[in-house]
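Weekend entry, working from home. Most of the wet-lab plans are on hold until the incubator is repaired, so I used the time to fold the two sequences that have been sitting in the queue since the last round of cloning. Logging both here for the record. First:
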Amino acid sequence: MTISRAFVQQAELEQAVLDAKRALAPDVVNLRYSLSEDWAGEPAIYFNVVLSEEASKQENLLKSYNRVAAVIQQRVEPLEQWGVLPYFNVRSQAEQLALQEEAWA
């Protein structure tokens, strides 16, 4: 059984994600993640991304989402460097304020 690097070197992964978060400012207000398995049992990383109100406007949302995914793919390299499949969940600041979910805070 092979264990993905992401599960073993979590401090280094945290630093890589923090670097990506800085690069995504000011569009990304918060960036959290969790490690788990996906529906097929493959190692996965789930990113919870809180976008600024400007970035989450309908006319900006697709561009914002694509930028988030690209920057994380380039700077974190989830599959290549960490052995986990990336999944992205995005919401606006207003939505997070209304829902108050800890996994996104």
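Second, folded right after the first finished:
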Amino acid sequence: MPRTGSVKVSQIVLDTNAYSAFMRGDRSVFSALSNSERVWVPVFVIGELHFGFQGGNRRQENLAELDQFLQKPTVRTWLPTLETAQIYGEVMDNLKRDGNPIPINDVWIASACIETGSRLVTFDQHFRRVPGLRLWQHPR
């Protein structure tokens, strides 16, 4: 699988932990973002970020930074569709039958990746359990 730092990837989906790493200055996530023509941020990720901001002492700053990020020309908010719901059902069924559940929000995020044909930028290893999901490889 090619590394995002060396190959132009047409579309990526940004997971919550990857957004947080980017905001902390992670160069590998920056490279993935800058080498993508389209960056999807699922509404589920935005919800997780809002939840995380609630208990922090930088709530207003974090909200402003998120809003600024979402305004970038290559960034789009991704909303679920009926196709997403179908993919979600299939992914959940596969994970349940295999005895390998993952968090519900992550099933929705994986479904967004599958629907859009995007590569998922995440640090969560449990996404490897989702058949057919294209994952970003963290440069080591």
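Plan for Monday: verify the second prediction. Strands lie at 9-14, 36-42, 75-78, 119-121, 134-135.
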